[in-house]
Amino acid sequence: MKSGGLVSVAAAALVATIAGAGGTLPIILAAAQTVGATPEQASSWVSGLSLATAFSALVLSLRYRMPIIAAWSTPGAALIASTTGVPSFAAAVGAFVLAAVLILLTAAVRPLGRLIERIPASIAAAMLAGILLRLVMAMVEHVPTSPLLVLPLLALFLVVRAFLPALASRVVLVAGGLLAWSLGLVKPLPPIGLTSVVFTAPAWDPATLIGLGVPLYLVTMASQNLPGFAVLRASGYQPPTQPILAVTGAASLGTAFVGAHTSNLAAISAALCTGPDAHPDPAKRWMTGPFYALFWALIGLFGASLVGLFGALPPALLATVAGTALLGSMAGAMGSALAGDQDRLAAAGTLAVTVSGVTLMGVGSAFWGLVFGLLILGIDKLVKR
After folding, report:
1. Which of 50, 53, 92, 13 is nearest to 305 (CA)?
2. Where in the sequence is the domain holding 312, given as residue range(s)?
3. Local structure of residue 191 (DSSP, 8 states)
4. Rounded (5°) CA angle 207-212-218
5. Rounded to an integer, what distance in angstroms lies between the CA atom of residue 338 and that of residue 205?
6. What are residue 84's phi and psi, to 5 degrees?
7. What is the pTM of this model?
8. pLDDT, tens digit, for every residue of 231-281?
9. What is the pLDDT of residues 169-205, one digit of tens each?
10. Total of domains in the chain
11. Is the Cβ–Cβ distance between 122 and 334 less than 8 Å?
């Protein structure tokens, strides 16, 4: 390969890594805070996710000579951050293990994969929209207490988004850090150091397994893996479904015990590595995978420093970065959920229950939103027979 082609491949992998981690790390930290993770466990969480992403991308790209790009599940992190009633971090780890096992079962048992595909897209989109809406709302809730920080960043986001939508949330992060520092809101920065992963024995809390583990599996499959396969196929590749799910599921299972939730196929990051900008020859774009894995491995090694850096920033800034990063995804999910006349009421019911944050019998709202939407659909079909 010529040096120019190698540089373009490496550049595409670097941009994809920055796009994957830059605006979504605050969502991971919000999730860690919600389930009661210590700073050490949060660092281990980030490192585990990064290493799982690196492992999956490296193994799959080398084995199949395709630009098969992995990522952590941002919708999954948003789900965790919006889930209430999780009794302990160990219970959350139990849910992560369950989600990984279900992904492995999907790889091994074809009917299970077909069953997931039969969930109406409008219902899955409505559940995702409800999850994301709660995090977007959290951004607005910080306005009364931190107006000098949040309002200028929201205005900046709207301006940058009009010209460079892909960079808007990253600009908010950088500008927000400078603004927070000028306002005296930044805590002392920690020293740079390598991360040591922390093993956490899972606790098997039935309500958390049902209310977090099952929805985590569903959003990972419906919002990440299925679009990831679609991106690869749209770029002219024929990815092997079962082996990819097996590798990403195994990586998720292996890192669940160090506190990491699911990793999966990338969609947006994959699009940066599968097009002609990565390399004009489609047969050589697989080289983005090893470079991508290298960059993610570096993030994994310095996860503690990243968590410490973001931990020094004020909560209002982290909420604003997360909210602006998820706003477009929330709008897209909501549009998909309510687009069709036939399923609109069921989708609206799913959205309403999910965003409510209600906990019934210890089970979170994402699960009940899915149940309520499917119940409405089932009744409608019975009536129309």
Report:
1. 50
2. 3-384
3. P
4. 130
5. 34
6. -105, 160
7. 0.79
8. 788 778 888 888 999 999 999 999 999 999 998 988 767 777 777 767 778
9. 778 888 888 998 988 888 877 777 777 788 999 999 9
10. 1
11. no
Q: Structure tokens of 108?
A: 């091994």
Length of the chain: 385
Contacts of 289 (CB under 8 A, 6+ apart): 13, 57, 58, 60, 61, 62, 66, 67, 68, 69, 273
The alpha-carbon radius of gyration of the chain (Å, integer) is 20
> What is the DSSP track for 204-264?
--HHHIIIIIHHHHHHHIIIIIHHHHHHHHHTT----HHHHHHHHHHHHHHHHTTT---EE
212, 275, 265: which is closest to 240 by C-alpha? 265
Both tokens assigned to 21: 């981690």
Residue 89 exposed, middle or buried by CB count within 10 Å (0-12, 13-18, 19+): buried
CB 207 within 8 A of CB 75: no
Structure tokens at 339: 């687009």
Give the pairing of strands 70-72 and 263-265.
antiparallel
Place of tokens 């959290």: 138
CA distance 268 to 326: 13
Dihedral through CA 311, CA 313, CA 315, CA 316, nearest 10? -160
